[in-house]
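Reopening this one. Same input as before:
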Amino acid sequence: MLTLPATRLSPQTVEFVILSFEGPDLYSLIGGLGVRATELASTLAELGFRTRLYFLGDPQKAYYEEQIGGLLSYHRWSQWLSAQFPDGVYHGEDAKINDYTASIPVHILEQVVAPAAARGRSVIVLAEEWHTTGAVINLARSVLQAGLHDRCLILWNANNVFGFEAVDWQSLRQSCAITTVSRYMKHSMVAQGINPLVIPNGIPSRWLENMDPLQAIQLRKALPGLLLAKIGRYHPDKRWLMAMEAAGYLKRQGFKPRMLVRGSSDPYRVAVIEKAFEQGLVWSEIRLTHPSLRQILTEIKRNRHADVLELNFFVPEDFLRLVYAAADAVLANSSHEPFGLVGLEVMACGGVAVTGSSGEDYAHSFVNCLRIDSDDAREIAVYLKDLMAHPDTAADIRSRARLTSSLFVWELVAQELFRKIEFVAQLRGVRVHG
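Same output, byte for byte:
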């Protein structure tokens, strides 16, 4: 059990509800949102708070599942719709949003807020992304009509600008406090007349655990030369084309780059592969089902002739951490990154992250990472060549990266979250101290 931060919030007086489309199941774990919802829920429960996570889960799994000694419960919502739309959480998105908006508020009011109030407790609802805004607005109206508005505090969080055009901002501001994950996102929202509180994203402390150095040696032996990696959706914002251009430039300079990549099923993948071929890079696809570390390394050795090795399978966290630690650099060079979770995870592993210049508030170039300020792939190549020429600088960056990332573990982020909760509770007249 984690140590409770030094605030006045207590598990004896407060319970948490997290509303998110994405969650821990592979069906709903699309990107950073699913990771955030899962890890935040686990952290709150580990701190001793009764926590419920409502998400669009795998229709083949149980609706209700308990974790962490019953302190955390998963509620897989709208499973009847997920069964009709089996290709992931955003398959049948409109129907799922409508059902979530209509059914979640009644359930939360009757099954969570009212029983908690009867026990002298308050419920803090943390809602994520635009899909939940209708549910948040309806929930706020419901608790007000039930006379329980002093027992339910709602915070809605923006992880990205996606779907902003569909949000009823006036109603949302009246219903809840609005938060976001970085100063970059705050400024983007201020431009639209919204002034959110900033609460950064977090990483689990396990990302800071030491790894077996022999495994890193095995990976480096399998892929000698300049080892690069890039993990993320195939989307223009992730600047995949820029990454391929940088690898092509380095290959023509004689550096023999090898890039491990993990993308997505998005159609943009075709454009990325075409760019790789245009740059003279050999692309190889590795497909595996529930692989072990040994199987992954074996397949990597088998495909070592390629310049780009696409890991077209769910990559286990342990192997992901190994890649981040062993690579000469991990290209997290997005043009638009609301927070930059991958970059922070790379830093936690003692890796060299190449970040963009948007939401990565933690990034300081040639101090704890390499930060890219232009759209020119040669900037990546020049910085990497400089790093290879100065191994002491690379070692210093790796060391400071780990120190930086230790400031963003969820236990510390929770301290900031709790203090913002106390502030908002005072403004909105919600009792969070019994």
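So the earlier flakiness isn't reproducible anymore. For the record, The first strand starts at residue 14 and ends at 19.
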